[in-house]
Amino acid sequence: MDITILLVDDEAVDLAWLRVRVEGSGHDSLKIAGTAKSGFAALKLMEQERIDIILSDIRMPIMTGTEFARKAKEINPAVHIVFISGHEDFGYAKEAIQLNAAGYLLKPVADNELNEMIANLCMKVEAEREVNSSVTEAVSLVQREVLLRWFRNPLPEHAEERVQRFLDPLLREGAAVALIEVDDLEYNTKSISIEERRKLLLDVEQFIQEFVHNNRLGVVMTGFDNRYLLLITIEEQICRPVLEKMVGTFGRVFPFTITIGLGRFALVSEGLHDSYGQAESALNTKWILGKNKIIIQDKLAPPTPLLASGLPAEVDLIVDEMLPAMLEYDLVKIDDSLMRLFQQDKDAQPLPKSASYDLIFRMTSKLHADLKHRNENLYELLDWESHMPLVLFEFETIHDLISWLRRRFFEVSEMLFLKQRRQERKLIGDITRYVEERLEFKVTLREVAAHFEFTPNYLGQLFRAETGVAFSDFLNDMRMKRACALLDDPRMKVYEIADRIGYKNIIYFNRQFKQVTGMTPGEYRKKNKI
């Protein structure tokens, strides 16, 4: 298989001369994939063909050689880049070192220097391919189950001979274990047919296999339901960028994401076994740290107790605060309560999965019991067939679980609030009709509250909140409207009208009528020619 090389220089003469010298270097396996006069043109060539080696001028207009190198590494992190430039470009040389360049040649480049650099790089590419090839061949010789069983055994003995033969080529330059998990696979495939799911899984496996092969990551093995074991053999310093590229590319290709747990690099089989355990531990923290990312063992926080002392009492206290917030449609308070319950404050350690489910059961049970006193059934409002519906166990991160609970509690809060508003509006209508029917009596707030089984204080506040006026003003307004209607009948005396609407004192009635209408009852009749 040819080793491909790309030549980049903005000077046409230098580029042509470089091509002649590379072609005459005497490496039969070396193939010039193309030449480019700018970094932009070179990047386009890299998108069309895999490049193993790049010889590039470091000082070019618009996009410098170092800027081009950064973008080239994004396309192919394993590519070997050699910069060629003049003595006065030492500042660029320092930057090239930071970019982990494979080499740096100063102009004018002697033939022996160029040939030696190309020879060394070709040997390195061939060695990398040999490792990948031997690993791939070994996979077919070593039973996958044997290797996976060795990895999964928490206290393994020394690796047996056939396992060791498989691992030796990987461990020469160092290797690490990564576990790749497809996020929310069950949740995203439960509505499709078995055949569609099978095809989707094959597409996922093909994507991962091709990505690993194209980027020379190492070897990938299946054997899990929605996980893939990756034995990484590329250099440690470029491992993280390549895996980040895999995560990003996967998310653009598929309607879901992947999360990768990464262990440390090792040089011996015992260290590689530890790397597997580290990758598994890292991936298991996806519940807390989130998905669609790389989780590294070194970044994990120390474990904390499942529940701090005194938390059960705090749970009840927070749920007690949540219920009135749900009744009042206070979404901010509901969200704050959920975040406190699940310890999502920035200084708190989030709850593990088992503790989270225990909390949900306790929280919903208490809310249900409290709502029963209001003739409401929380489980019916949530449309849950059981106290812990199966959908709760499909979430793989605490963030997803809280987001789902938040949405459902917001919906319940809205239903309760609207139902309460409808009840309050009906109550106001009933109160209005009751007062209208009893205007001839001395109607009071206390009497109305007793009739509707409320305290006077609560009913007065509810009435003002719903109508915007005090009950006394409403009652007085109702009486004056009835008085005007009765005054329109010329057969009725004013004192009779006052008595009819509950006023026993004619002077007080006249004063109240004038305060509301701006005229006395007599003036009202005179104005309306009654």
UniProtKB/TrEMBL annotation:
GO terms assigned for molecular function: DNA-binding transcription factor activity; sequence-specific DNA binding
Domain GGDEF positions: 173-299
SUPFAM superfamilies cross-referenced by the UniProt entry: CheY-like (SSF52172), Homeodomain-like (SSF46689)
Residues found modified as 4-aspartylphosphate: D57
Signal peptide (residue range): none
One GO-annotated biological process of the protein: phosphorelay signal transduction system
Pfam families reported for this sequence: GGDEF_2 (PF17853), HTH_18 (PF12833), Response_reg (PF00072)
Keywords: DNA-binding, Phosphoprotein, Transcription, Transcription regulation
Domain named HTH araC/xylS-type: residues: 429-527
UniProt protein name: DNA-binding response regulator
Organism per entry: Paenibacillus herberti
